Description:
The structure is a single chain. By secondary structure, the protein is of the alpha/beta class. The chain has a single domain (4-145, 196-261), classed as Vaccinia Virus protein VP39 (Rossmann fold, 3-Layer(aba) Sandwich), CATH 3.40.50.150. The protein contains eleven helices and nine strands. Strands 1, 2, 3, 4, 5, 6, 7, 8 and 9 form a nine-stranded mixed beta sheet that branches. Helix 6 packs antiparallel against helix 7 (161-173). Mean pLDDT is 93; it is low at 266-272.
Amino acid sequence: MLLPEVLAYYERGGETVRLSAGVGRLEFLRTWDILTRILPPPPAVIVDVGGATGVYAGPLAHAGYQVTVVDPVPSHVSASAARPGVTAVLGDARALPFDPASADAVLLMGPLYHLLDPAVRALAWREAVRVARPGGVVAGATIARHAPLLDIVSRGLFGEAETREITLADVAHGRHVSPPGRPFFTTAYFHAPGEPAAEASAAGLTRVRTLAVEGPVWPMTDRVTELLADPVTSAELLAALRGVEEEPSLLGASSHLLTFGTPASAVSQSAV
């Protein structure tokens, strides 16, 4: 299951509101825009792995999908299960409680953030492919490698020596372990732009694509908040980001990446 520090981080309840305002709202709107384009039509069966409090599962169920959230955080499972039409179970991305080829789509909306070992990330990808039907969709969200650097600069923290040193080390190798008592993100892995597609392909996905979620505008928090507050400029911003979501030179400037592909064939449990 989760590392103790990761579980403690999520039990604080931050996921309840994180995607509701500012740059978090941009992340939600962009992710939702991508999902509406890549998912099969309802009433398809969707397994939302690491779906937290059901921020995506709720709207998906409202749209007519059959959605099950799998999450290792008990409070997340309770919150998701309280959403109309959503089923939620306690579970781990590395051993999903579903039969092979039993879902039309499997979403890894958080597990890949916290798996530092590439072999363990590969296990999560393969489990998702095992559960998805051939011709379905598997999608995985990752944190982009350079997001921590852009974050501390945008928040005026680059001048703090310890913060700068930890962040530059994270960017160099992608592995982040938060020092005790410091207000950093919890233990995490930050993907270089080409890594998610390589991991997805190795797990058996075909037609793999990686899209930038927030694109290069997310560090401008105040401006993004202002643009999203107006329906006209919000729509224009989302359209502009959709237009550059696959531009290779901008993938590394996004905070999150969404990588997806199609299982060519079911993967047996013995291959996991």
